[in-house]
Amino acid sequence: MTVLVVGDLVTDVLVAHAGPLAVGSDTDARISVGGGGQAANTAAWLARAGAGVILIAAVGDDHAGRERIAELVAAGVHCAVRAHAGVATGSVVVLSSADERTMITDRGAALLLDPADVRAAVRNAPGVTHLHLSGYPLLHTGSRPGGLAALAAAREWGLSTSVDAASAEPLRQLGARAFLDLIHGTDLLLCNADEAAVLAGAGTPEEQAAVLTADAGNVVVKRGGDGAVWAARDGVLRSVAGVRVPMIDPTGAGDAFAAGLLTAWCAGADPAAALAAGAALGAAAVQTIGARPRTA
Question: Apex CA 73: angle with CA 42 and CA 192, to 5°?
């Protein structure tokens, strides 16, 4: 089984702080620099889970871009990543505590995701059965054609598809209906509680997931430590309890959850088992600093 993942590959500047930020003054923190980007993180966790994975993305033709690609190759990810001259690899400053994370984003070269590159990668990838698209390319005009090309190519070549809703504030700015029109017909939509509230309005996670099946065949609403729910268009609901572990850093937990779920589901697991696999990998992610699997 091989999964194509489409979206951002960026540099994360992770600022992990234990207490509240002292605005206008100093706050002690642990600061690290490494690979990030929702799609790239999901790809790394897919490789850790044992899936074959190809990442389609765009970086700058710079030192950061070369480092980001090398990290993923070392993690077992095949990179169909184009390096663009004259533009910097994207960067994200992640302010992370045990309870939440806030991101300050410069997407840089990620905005140059090229539809032709995407179509070529889908067409030339042997043994691929599924395409997973990070929602970030769809949320910005520069990269939107590349994201739409990914979904169109997947349908043309008979691949199943999934989309991660990505981030609540950009979804709010684009508009729920506009985003749902872009991903209409997707086999699986993943969103967290904040994203579900933007896309489906108020309600329980079960109600929100059911509403969103009008646009996606299956919908998963992630609830962090409280687990997740899965709604199918046939009206069947499944849920899984969260895996309670000590929280060190939530960065990348949703990406790990998606990877665990997709690895199981694409291998034929039923929704309940796929949810459990996602919860287990998400729990592993929150016990380490950073958005990627821990390396030896």
Answer: 5
Work out the end-to-end distance of the chain between its first and last CA atoms, rounded to an integer number of angstroms: 25
**Could you tell me the CATH number of the domain that includes residue 274?**
3.40.1190.20
**54 lies in some domain:** yes
Quote helix, strand, coil % in the chain, to nearest 5. Answer: 40, 30, 30
Question: What type of residue is 210?
Answer: A
- What single-letter amino acid sits at 193? A
pTM flag (> 0.85): yes
Interatomic CA distance for residues 264 and 203, integer angstroms:
28
d(CA 92, CA 39): 14
Question: Mapping DSSP to helix (H, G, I), strand (E, B) and coil, where does residue 144 land?
Answer: helix
Quote the strand ranges of 109-171, DSSP E: 128-134, 160-164
Any domain includes 291? no
User: Is 143 part of a structural domain of the chain?
Assistant: yes
Using DSSP's 3-state secondary structure scheme, residue 53 falls into: strand
- Taking the C-alpha atoms of residue 151 and residue 159, their distance in angstroms, rounded to an integer, is 9
- Tens-digit pLDDT profile for residues 20-44: 888 899 999 889 899 999 999 999 9
Number of structural domains (the chain) is 1
Integer angstrom CA distances of residue 134 from 131, 158, 175, 184: 10, 19, 17, 15
- Give a yes or no: residue 92 inside a domain: yes
Q: Which residues span the domain enclosing 210?
A: 2-285
Residue 235: its H or E element: none
